[in-house]
Fold:
Amino acid sequence: MSESLTYVSEKVGMMPGTLVHVGSVFEAETKISLVDYNKDTIEENNIFSIEELIKYKETDTITWVNVEGLKNVEIIESIGQMFHIHSLVLEDILNTHQRPKFQEEDEYIYIVIKSLALQNEKLSVSYEQISFLILDNFVFTFRETSDDLFSPIYQQLKNSKGRLRSRGSDYLAYAILDVVTDMNFVLIDSLDIVIDSIEDELLTNPTSQTLVKIQQYKRELINIRRSVSPLRELLSGILRSDSTLIRIETHEYFRDIYEHVIHVSEEIDSYKDILAGLLDIYISSVSNKMNEVMKVLTVFASIFIPLTFIAGVYGMNFEYMPELKWKLAYPVLWVFFIIFSIMSFVYFKKKKWI
Amino acid sequence: MSESLTYVSEKVGMMPGTLVHVGSVFEAETKISLVDYNKDTIEENNIFSIEELIKYKETDTITWVNVEGLKNVEIIESIGQMFHIHSLVLEDILNTHQRPKFQEEDEYIYIVIKSLALQNEKLSVSYEQISFLILDNFVFTFRETSDDLFSPIYQQLKNSKGRLRSRGSDYLAYAILDVVTDMNFVLIDSLDIVIDSIEDELLTNPTSQTLVKIQQYKRELINIRRSVSPLRELLSGILRSDSTLIRIETHEYFRDIYEHVIHVSEEIDSYKDILAGLLDIYISSVSNKMNEVMKVLTVFASIFIPLTFIAGVYGMNFEYMPELKWKLAYPVLWVFFIIFSIMSFVYFKKKKWI
Amino acid sequence: MSESLTYVSEKVGMMPGTLVHVGSVFEAETKISLVDYNKDTIEENNIFSIEELIKYKETDTITWVNVEGLKNVEIIESIGQMFHIHSLVLEDILNTHQRPKFQEEDEYIYIVIKSLALQNEKLSVSYEQISFLILDNFVFTFRETSDDLFSPIYQQLKNSKGRLRSRGSDYLAYAILDVVTDMNFVLIDSLDIVIDSIEDELLTNPTSQTLVKIQQYKRELINIRRSVSPLRELLSGILRSDSTLIRIETHEYFRDIYEHVIHVSEEIDSYKDILAGLLDIYISSVSNKMNEVMKVLTVFASIFIPLTFIAGVYGMNFEYMPELKWKLAYPVLWVFFIIFSIMSFVYFKKKKWI
Amino acid sequence: MSESLTYVSEKVGMMPGTLVHVGSVFEAETKISLVDYNKDTIEENNIFSIEELIKYKETDTITWVNVEGLKNVEIIESIGQMFHIHSLVLEDILNTHQRPKFQEEDEYIYIVIKSLALQNEKLSVSYEQISFLILDNFVFTFRETSDDLFSPIYQQLKNSKGRLRSRGSDYLAYAILDVVTDMNFVLIDSLDIVIDSIEDELLTNPTSQTLVKIQQYKRELINIRRSVSPLRELLSGILRSDSTLIRIETHEYFRDIYEHVIHVSEEIDSYKDILAGLLDIYISSVSNKMNEVMKVLTVFASIFIPLTFIAGVYGMNFEYMPELKWKLAYPVLWVFFIIFSIMSFVYFKKKKWI
Amino acid sequence: MSESLTYVSEKVGMMPGTLVHVGSVFEAETKISLVDYNKDTIEENNIFSIEELIKYKETDTITWVNVEGLKNVEIIESIGQMFHIHSLVLEDILNTHQRPKFQEEDEYIYIVIKSLALQNEKLSVSYEQISFLILDNFVFTFRETSDDLFSPIYQQLKNSKGRLRSRGSDYLAYAILDVVTDMNFVLIDSLDIVIDSIEDELLTNPTSQTLVKIQQYKRELINIRRSVSPLRELLSGILRSDSTLIRIETHEYFRDIYEHVIHVSEEIDSYKDILAGLLDIYISSVSNKMNEVMKVLTVFASIFIPLTFIAGVYGMNFEYMPELKWKLAYPVLWVFFIIFSIMSFVYFKKKKWI
Structure:
């Protein structure tokens, strides 16, 4: 069952405002890592309670808090209280079956997207929900699992004194969003290889397994599309936004992501067309194979059935069958058998049935 | 015949303004239950005549009147008179073949939606029409049947002194709407399981019954879609509305439902694609089976027809057939028969026909 | 040939402004009936010349003039002159191949719609064009034929002193439009029954006639759709109109029709999907039947062809065939024949080919 | 190759502003006919040099210049200079592979459309490009060929003193446009007849030629659509235009054409659906025919293969076959043969295979 | 693998702002050619360092700098610094997997498009990305490869003193864009020929290779479409732009390209429909061929199987078979054999199976 189908039904019957983690990935522990930086200084930390964040609230530095693992509901709740986040937003962060969206409030911006990754060569795609809270000097990211997806950004922050360090929280958010959406390009490339291999299989040795694969990839494509296509709307929402939290000079960067997202969406759409084409090839190739089988049968039957009839005739026991007495009858008949076979063979050859 | 198809034709020829219950579910009795509450007090009641409502009109408390069973037209009529509801709205409440819609008047808001529930594992979906009238301090809900769909809200009202108790009639309406639309998630989950089981059946043992099932679910999906997709428009209507009956702080909550509805709509659309894919698999698997049958026939015929011809030849009664006298002819022929069979068998094996 | 296809080509080459009746229904005589009413009085009349209308022009009463049969072009022309109707509108009234539309002028509103009726159970749908002219105190309706479609309105006008009598010409137009569009619900119900019967036929005994029926209904559905779907646009035109001829309090009623029309359009669209599904079932069932035929052939051939070969072997006339002398050879061979048949039969049974 | 496909590639590499005739129809000579009229007078003329037009420029009369044959590029060039037409417009007039469009300049309006005509009953449609230049008192029409398409307008101008004579250049342009677009109705009617005949052929005697025809008409329909559907946009452009060259009272007339164009577009769309349906019927009827063939084969084989086996058994040469000696064996066997045949026949009859 | 699919994944993990050439075409050397002109003078040059551009910055002449080969990242970087181009734009120039787009800044306009060319008759389309920077007196073009695509413009600039020399940088940009988009017409024409040849092949001798070709062209069409259809949006962006860099009198020219682009898009869309039609023909023709094969088999089998049975009957060894003694039995049987064959033959002929 696909990730996005297990769904909210777990929460049906609960009142809105109840904070519960809804999802299938349960990290053993919630891990909070913090980077606090400005142009000149940088400080990296793992923190264990939300109270530690208070001191960063009063500084002018940009603080990035990355929460990995959503099991510990109290952490989300404390962040919500400390930064005045709406309870519905908190619920959305905890419910990992969200549709990607962009929501703009007075004091913060909430973004939720899906990070897609190909698990292995069997095209089993994993979906991870990543939530962003962008405040004036704070960026919160909430992830379901813990891996090295964000490491290029940590590198960038630590090593360089470049653009990232000298800009605001909106640029940091952009950089993270860019890393996550770039994963889609990797996915698309893998898809391309997979589809090419199916096409080869179809043309050389189509089996009913090939059909199953096509259908399976079609379903996966539908799922991918459902995660990727809302990004379009999300980013055009960011671009249209007049929130002061996203500076006008950062718009250019978000527009860059916007174009990537359109590009990926178009690729996915064209894969859908290509998969439909593969199905047509499959169906035709099944018909072609049946044609081939039928031709073999027809050629064999058309040559030997008449000959068998002739042999049957001279196997009859009538007393008065003059040919039976003829000395040359038997060899002549063999000549006839052979000529008839050759002519039939040539005829079917000419018809391209053999 | 699907619920929504029996339709308004029952009312054709009547003049507008005639109040008649049009529907297929007739409850024995109309049951009216009332909850009147504010932050501090709560009163639960069953009432038997609309006149009892008068006293609640003058208080500041929120009053929720839930009418179950629409047979008793007079009740609807009295409510209409007492609260100045337009006669067309009253007609719509009574006619249970409405398309979900949101209608905004000066003094009240009228919402009509469908509550979908899976009856049993045979994917027979039941549709119940639920109408809402949202007034300043009143919420009316009109249902066709009586079950425990609303019980979480009663629980919430009675037990807690939380958000629901301290907010207005718009928040109550939201809470009810949320409960009803959440049922769609349950339905979607069931659909997912059903479709997975059809897919398994297709790949292991497709019969013509499988095809019938696919078509049946396709029709059901069309019906579900017709009930769910207008919700999108309905909720964006609520969000765009500038009626004072829906407070600005409640908008956030309706937007939450809006996103759920989009999510469900997208799921349903993708199921349509998946069902279409299943049909393709079915058609291909029928072709595959025919292929298999044809191969068996062709292998048998191609091996034995030539051999039968040879046997027929030596069954001929010519006087001068030298082979017939040869001592070794018969065993040699058997050797030929066997070698020919084996070679043919190997050939077809190599061609993957066996 | 469908009604809407015989088309305007009859008029090609004529200059605009030429009033000619274009249509396929020619009533022997044009019949004009008139109802003049207000809250207190009502007068019903058949009139024979347009001059009789002059006296009603000066009163405050609502006058409904129903013209049945369009052969008599002069009548239309006189009405046009007397009430200052644009000549293109007059042409449209006479040309019964119009697309439904709403046209708003300073002094009048012109509406043209199609009245659909199922002729008999063979789903032959008849299309009648009905034109409306709505003036301040006048409503003109122009019909091609004469039947009792409008009788509920006559009843309503005569019998009751209700809403219809006390309102303006816009409400009368609404009432008539409502009666005509309600006919679509009746049609939709019939369609539903027809499609269910085709589905039954498909599953029990599909013939090539079934396919012809599906295609025929598909074409009819396309025609129906072409008559119904412009109604949507027509009614939203009325609702958006700021003509003083349609009072603000009547809008509510037209919106009611608008919703019915959307409902019907959606039904028709879903029928299209369902018919497409039926076609898929048909094609699959044809394949299934061929499968069945092939299996019978294959079973017969696979059992008897090898046996015939064996019989042929012992029909050979070699001098040295030791088995021929064996006493038990013949019964043993019969035993073999029977065992082989039974085993083959069991094998095919297990493969579900029998 | 379809007309619109030979295309502009002939002009690739040329600089914009180069006036060249691009097209496939080359008239021997360019013919210029002129009608100059007002309410009272009318003058008809063939002119041979553009200079003759100067005198008409100063009068108040409406002058219609119809240029037939585009080979003579200088004529177009002189008109362009004399009336200050943009060089890109002149290029468009000469390049007969334009998409229908409406272009509005300060001093003139440029319209280009396609005139479609059915060449013969083989549905070979001819496309002619007709360009319009509408000035204050001038209308230019540019055609590729010379035929009697415009004769109704000449008639109207000469004979009557009606609407056409008393109105401006915009009404003349309307009248011409009306005549050209009305040709589409004629085409549609022919299409209808052609499609009906294909459907008959499909149901009585489908051959592979029928399929070729369907595909051919499908392509032609695509071409027709490409010429007709931009008219919608073109006319709504005219209706939205606030150019003083199109008087407000003429809008009504253009709206009439607009509605015709929508009508024709919808017809063409529905033909596309119908043709797709025909293809489905074709494919099904091919399957049906194969079914029929298979049934014949199966019936013959299923009856005679077992009987042949029996005959083969009694043709064996075993010494000890007691039945061979029985006196009644032979007639009894015949009885069995006949009973078996009849029973098989009845069985297959019951199964509707015969 | 299609060009646009190898994609940005090469850049995943890099920070925005890193200038790297991403693409598959690596020219050995970057070549920069420069044309500087005004109405009176023209100077053509190859330059080797960007510093040489400084002197042209101060003149009023139009300077066109054409950069061929993108390997040398420093060149792009220097241009960026000298003309204040945003670093994201520089990245886009270097990343040759861009989607065509139009981006408008205060001091320059950035356009990126794809130049499509048919490599050979095998419909292998090559895609080259061409970027434009339009400044007040400068036009930069960036190409991946070096060929004679721009030579008509060089010719035009050198030879004539026409429009091109007397207008601004916007007109130069138009002229280049026009040359590039005109290549699409050439491509479309080639496509047309290719599709016609496939159709011929389908009707005369369809093989499974034909199917592979159809699918291959379908994929190529999807790719072409992805490069061409964003041009629509791009050009309507230019037309809507109020940048002073594109003079109002040049708009007319860009609108001309806009219409060409729409034309090409529509052609491509219709090819998609036509290819889908070809697939239908293919599938039907495969069925037709199988039908033909089946008919041959059935005719042979239906004639000879009964005859063989008869021959088998008279090959039985019963002692009491009176016919065996009849003198005329054998010739009479032959007569029967021949009459039966002829009648069967006539019957199948009448059924059009032979």
